[in-house]
Amino acid sequence: MRDPIDLKEFHWLLSIVQSIDVGVVVLDREHRVQVWNTFMENRSGVQPRDAYNQCFFSLFPEVDRQWFSHKVDSVATLGTPAFTIWEQRPYLVRFKNYQPITGQVDFMYQNTTLLPLRSTDSEIRQICLVIYDVTDVATNRHQLQAANAQLQKLSSTDCLTGLYNRGHWEECLQLAHARNQRYGNATSLVMFDIDHFKRVNDTYGHPAGDAVIRQVARVVREQIRDSDVAGRYGGEEFGVVLTDTDKAGALIFAERLRKAVERLSVSHEGQDIRFTISLGVADLSQPSSSHAELIAWADHALYLSKHGGRNRVTVHEPAVAAG
Fold first, then answer.
1. pLDDT reading at 98 higher than 90
2. What was the pLDDT predicted at 12?
3. What are the residue numbers of the active site?
4. Which terms does the record give in the GO molecular function aspect (predicted)?
5. Closest CA relative to residue 91, chosen from 74, 108, 77
6. Residue 156: what pLDDT?
């Protein structure tokens, strides 16, 4: 006969299992439910008497049966616990999330533990599944990651245009130059600025000038590929790094961009503002010491476009050594 103290301790243990704020489910080797605590009842809406002896997979058809069965069998065979974490598997069973603070997510993120339960004869005939609600942790992690991503974007983005700022744009160009030096892939740079931009500001005001710059940036985004890198170099000057593109291809891109801007009309406070851009093109088909040299070549070609009448594209050609 059991000692009364043992019965009292057993009663305490059952009270703890029922009141603890984690899910506790005991399964036999056929995955039938033997224990179903209050946490599971409240989250699933299934009462213990209705869950008892039911197959776990019939209660939760969303569970990957093959994967979970293998997990349970490993725990029973090896006699060691197994775990899942929300980063790898957001949840084992799909419970709705009712927490007010983390209410923006639809389901409960979960960590789980599978524990082997040894009988008095040391045989493992039951497995205890413990489900932890880690929605707060997961949501906070996601919010932190989103905040870091936003900070990263802000640190690399020009606030007026949404294009990359000069620092990030030059870093990308430096990497493109390094890849060219190592692998020899074609790389081109297009530099351009808005013609007579001071006149736009003086005639229509600086807010109108900002509107013009934003619309130019929009056109650039429409023209580039995902692999290209466009940025604001400063003021009304922009740069576009064209990957796997020689100067012939860059010339085609630059002409297409020039014509798109020429067709553009920016409406500001009832006035239509029209303008053009001048562009310079250079590539890495000739030896270069650094990415800064490529900028200098493209910038010089841009200078020639400005002084050649504007609204045109000039391609940098290497100087021919005197014979």
1. no
2. 58
3. 236
4. diguanylate cyclase activity
5. 108
6. 82
For residue 209, give the amino acid letter: G
Cα 236 to its chain centre, rounded Å, is 30
Beta carbons of 298 and 239 less than 8 angstroms apart: yes
Supply the mean pLDDT for the chain: 89
* Class of the CATH-defined domain 4-141: alpha beta
**Residue 151 burial (CB < 10 Å; 0-12/13-18/19+)?**
exposed
Those residues whose C-beta lies under 8 Å from the C-beta of residue 189, and which sit 6 or more positions away, are 173, 239, 240, 241, 242, 250, 281, 282, 283, 294, 295, 297, 298
For 39, residues 6+ apart whose C-beta sits below 8 A from its C-beta are 20, 21, 22, 23, 24, 131
- Phi, psi (deg, nearest 5) at residue 161: -100, -25
- Residues in a beta bridge with 125: none
Which CATH class name applies to 158-315?
alpha beta
Predicted pLDDT of residue 208: 94
Cα distance between residue 298 and residue 306, in whole Å: 12
Q: Where are the domains of the chain?
A: 4-141, 158-315
